Structures are given as structure tokens and as C-alpha cells.
């Protein structure tokens, strides 16, 4: 006989781990106990030595699907004669190191019960079990127990309680367990707040309203969605105008995989992403049969699609339904999740509200991914992913990294674990900024992290930087593009130097210019700027980002001076009369900062080709350029690569050739494709030169411009063909949503 104490840290709470251990102990006839503590679970088992060995092996081999065993430690104890195995109550220990599970999509068992009219949870919109249901969004603190969730106010009925207490039941200690008799309920309201009287018919009513063209605000897991029929041109158009969202594509939810396959091509990898337990929005390629309203994703070869993930979605969407499901907010504001707030903010947008009474403790947006080379490439990391940590290759001090400005997230670290916040949004918005501060405090409490220092972006005007300055902690300023590259390195556990290609719109450069087309030789501690894109001026400063025609104007002015007026191209014909004033001011450097941003170059070309002169969402000009390039055969245009230190990529020859061909009447779509190919070739050419200088063959790609999949996929192919090993983001987004991870690891290594 032997007795062992086993401590397991990781995601072991709220995933059916205790019943699993309970059943395992019975199988091997062991006595003892299991309990949830703040670090994870604590187990003591007693029995024959060979049975104990088999027990320990079975723990890792048979663990429940959602469990993540981060650390297992085993110690021997004195035998004390336990025959029974029991599940004890949780203890709240001093150090809270338990991991919190992300929210999990409704599992197959629960879907089956929900569809079975003999089941007591037939059509119950809050059905869940230990393998599925809300987690992060309802948890107030750890250990994860019902009183620490927003289910605390719901008293379980006797039937639910029996399930909850029965270790052989799949709802054993399922904290959000509930049913028609005791759990939360939905209620349909009109936009004046008047409830729809017959609550047994409200889902049928909601479906009818959507079929008739109404816009419904639906409370879900992490916030409110705005929903309408994606095939109803009028409804989708109305949603766009009420939400003040002109061109940015909407995501949709399909009622079944078959419905999605009818609209889009779905690879095996994409199918796995669509129907797994995370259920992000997946960007898919539209099929010729695509038949949704033209306003869903205008001019776009791709469509953001998700499958139902909360029980309510299964109840509302028929198998062939496709609904627009966009986050419940007006542009730029955070997603609504509080009922009163939602009613006020969304009443001018939604015709009806389908609301439930289970509070959402933390808002969490839908995540967005796309497939790149057979694997998931994240564009927005939120629901289903957070708050699972990103594992670092070595432990670092506890750091708060405050991130950037747009699409912001922050990061808190603890040992080898990096907790990246969900997508928060653009901090310039006051409501978003406040939710950012609140969320930092929530994360600090949830993971019991008291940061030893704060890392921030060097840009003095970023609100996240200003916030960092207010904290009484040692501070580490991190260069924006170094942080981007370090984020990819951290994901892949790279400690050696890499060639980092950081392409984004703008980031603060230590020389006072705006960087964003950077080739860095970097490790975590340091970087050298080995190359960059040639600077161009942004006439009008920030205005040039909203109005890309200013960039194209500057490029033409550099090449042709005032003679640009004689160019026979649509772009020049459409220039406002003020163009001469603008170029004169810019030439004198008046409100015209220098910028090397790759994003700005894409903007300039997009404007020159007359594709997009002014934007109504971030990155639009570059997106329109990519959309226009898709599927076109591409010629290679000239460019210059200097031998200076740092090396400089000059696209003036490219621009001149684009102008030449435009004057000859070449189709702008062909030129958009040619520009992409030229960018790819020039980028890899630069990498080859830097590799020759340094002997480094590992290349890491990061920055928002790498959301351009045409550019990304062509670059990966060419890097591979040229003998390089590439590293791209697989866990955090390439845009500024991944920045904080890089800041944290850099600060951690500097601290050493
Ligand atoms: Zn379930
Ligand atoms: Zn019940
Ligand atoms: Fe950036």
C-alpha cells in the first residue's frame, strides 16, 4: 500500500476534471480525495502500488478534452487507511494560480438533449455541462465555483442539484448547470422596452421577425449581437446605415456546415476551425453560388463565417439560415454586454431585443481567424481563446505590458505564462479606454498578478503609454516593431537572433519618424534596424491616413514635381484644386512627418490606382488594393535596393512604372497584383541581403500589413523557395492586438 499527493496546475477547473478523477479512483479501487484549490486541483490517493501507477498514467492519457495539464507534481505520504474516494469542497489558498477556462461552444451531447422533446432540457437556451458552456465571461474570481460566477443568484432545482452532486453525471459540478425550472430565461422586447407577452412563442416570433426583415439585438455569451437575415438586401443595408458602418464587411452565422458550404469553399482545416469548441469567425473564400445580400461583404472575395456556439443560436437558426451576426455596438465603441447599457446604446439600431437574465461579467467579442498553410492564423483573439495563457519558453518576472492604441490588448505575465487580454478595441474611444483599465484590474485579481514592472510603447501620445506612466512601477519603453517581432518569437520559443520583417501602418521610431516598413535583426533583448522602406511624407499628418490620396500625391510630386498635373490618369484628374498648396507645405516639412510604413505605401498605391481615396475603416485602402489584386496574373515592376546602412528599399521606380502603365490604359486590377508581387520580391530580396550580412536564415513576420493574405502567402512561398525558415503568428494577431505579448517578453529579458 502507498499514498500519494498529486498537485495539478493548468486548466483543470470547470472541465469535468474532478468527476474524471473520481471515476478513475473507483476503477483502480483507490481511496482518498480530490479538491479544487486556487492553483488547480489537489489529489490524495491511497492503494496498491501498481494500481497507483496505472492511475497516474491514466490521468494524462484519458484527461477530459478541455483539460490542460500544465504542471503535475507527485509526492509520497504516510498511509492513513482511506478506503473511500471523495470529492471535497474547494479551498481558497493564498496564491491563486488556477487557470480559467475560456468559454466553450455547446457540445454534441447538449445539442442532442436540446433537440430531444422528451428531454427535460428540450429547447433550453442555457443548456451546458462540464464539457461546454460559459466560463471566462461569467467568472468573477477563482476558485471557479458557482457562487463566484454570475449564476450565483440562481438556486438549482432538485433535479439539477442531483445531477450537480452525482460524480457519474456529466453535469457533476457543472457550475452554470440550470434548466427550464430553475435557470435563466430569455425575454423578447420591442425597442421601447415593452415585453412580448407570450414567452413560450418568443423564439418562433424572433425567427419570424428576422424573416420579415427586422434587426434584432440578441444577448449571447460575451455580449450583444445585432442580427438580421443575410439574404435580405434591405435589412442588411439598414443595419449598415444605423450602425454607421459603410464598407467594413459583416460576419455571418450559418445554421449548419451545409449552409456554409453552399456559400464558401471549406477546406478540412477550415472545417475543424468552424466546428471546434472555440468557434471563431473564420474567413472563407466565397463560391460562385454565393447568394447573400450584396451589402454583407461588398467587393470582397472572402466572408467571415461562424457556426452556432451558444444554445440560443441552435434554437434560432434553421439549418439553411444565414444571419448577419455583428457585434452590438456602433462603430468604434466596445460591444454592449450590460442590459441597461445595451438597451440605451442599441435602441436606435435594433427593432427588437432578445435578452436573458444571466449577467455577463466580462464582455468578450467573437474571435476571428483564417487558414494560412493548413493552420489557424489569428486576426482577433477573444472568445474561446482567452484567458488561456501563451506559454513562454522560460519564466520571466511579472510584467504588465500596456500594448498600443488601435485594436488594443494588454498582457500580464506570471512565470512562464503570458495572459493576453481579449480584444479591447481602439483606446481613443473613452468607453473603450475605461473598459481597458477595468479589465487590467480584473486580470490582476483573477490571476493574482502584482506586476513588478510595466512595459509600454515608445509613442508618447498613446493612451496606453500615458497610463503606464501613471503607475508606480519600474518602466520599460519598447520600440513598436521590436515588440511585433518579439511577439512572434515568443510564440515559437525562439531565443536566437532572427530577421524580423515588421510591416504595419505606423509606429513610433526612435529617429522621430513614423516607422512601419522595418527589417530588424532582433532577439528579445535588442534589435538592429538592418533595413527599411524609404521614407515618404504624410502631407497633413494623421489626415493622410484617413485620406490616402495625399500619399499618392506626395509620391507623384517627388517624381514629377508640379508637372504631375500633366499626367493623363484618373487620379490626377480628380485631385482637388488645393493640391499645390498641400505639396508646397509638405515639401517644406510642414505637418508632413516622414514615414516608412508599408501600410502607407499600400495606401498610396490604392489611391494612385483610383481604388480608394478616403477610408471609412482602418486599413481600408490597403484592403481594397488586395481585393482588386486577387486572382490576377502579375508582372514584376522595378524597385531599388540600396547598400546603405541601414539598407533602404525604394519604390519610386515602381510608382513611376505604375504611372506609365496607367497612362497606357492598363487595368488597375493587373497593376494592383503587380504591386503585390513586386512588394513580395523586394521584401525577400532585402531579407536575402541581410541574411548574407548576418548568416541568419530564420525570418519572423509580424505587423498589421501581414493580415493581407495575398502578400503573406506569396511571401511565405518565396521565403521557402529561397531557403529561409519562416515564423508567423499562430496564437496572437499580427496586428497591434499581439503587440503587448512582445512588449512583455522584451521587458522580461531586459529585467534580467
Ligand atoms: Zn455540453
Ligand atoms: Zn433545474
Ligand atoms: Fe503595429
UniProtKB/TrEMBL annotation:
**Gene designation:** hypF_7
| GO BP terms | protein maturation
Species name for this entry? bioreactor metagenome
- Could you tell me which pathway this protein works in? Protein modification; [NiFe] hydrogenase maturation
The name this protein carries in UniProt is: Carbamoyl phosphate-converting enzyme HypF
Q: Domain Acylphosphatase-like, which positions?
A: 3-89
Q: Which SUPFAM superfamilies does the UniProt entry name for this protein?
A: Acylphosphatase/BLUF domain-like, YrdC/RibB
Q: Which GO terms describe its molecular function?
A: carboxyl- or carbamoyltransferase activity; double-stranded RNA binding; ligase activity; zinc ion binding
Q: Which family does it belong to?
A: Belongs to the carbamoyltransferase HypF family.
Catalytic activity field:
C-terminal L-cysteinyl-[HypE protein] + carbamoyl phosphate + ATP + H2O = C-terminal S-carboxamide-L-cysteinyl-[HypE protein] + AMP + phosphate + diphosphate + H(+)
